[in-house]
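Protocol step 4 of 6.
Sequence for PiggyBac transposable element-derived protein 4 (Plakobranchus ocellatus) entered exactly as in the expression construct, tag removed. Do not edit the line below.
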Amino acid sequence: MDNFFSDADLADKLLQRKTTIVGTVRRNKCFLPNEFLAKKKLKLSDSLFGFSDNKCILSYQWHKNKNVILLSTMHTQPVILPGEKREPEIVMYYNSTKGGRCGLCHWKVNKKGTVKCHKCCNFLCKDYVAKSVAYCENCNT
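Step 5 output, structure tokens:
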């Protein structure tokens, strides 16, 4: 969900209609606690989770002095995936469902630098197509 529309009230209304959301949140939203707005308190790849009723708020430090704040009504546990970046499951889910991402490396791609997957029509980076990979990871099996 776009950060302009992500709000706790909207999340509650959508939950009443049995619809979950995962989206980024702008820093000026009044429902965010001050702990989630501080950029310098977290170290690189650190996460701060907050839970209320059926909502989860996440602050993830992805670069120095840059954090992303996400709101999710779908996730109920603070799951952090293993690896170098220690990315939370919420961030990985958000990136995988967001449009305009490569089906293999999940980097943001534009129309000029991409080729479509032959099976599912997801966009792929030309770097992967040059390595003779013609299908994204979901279709490769």
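Step 6, annotate. The mean pLDDT is 75.
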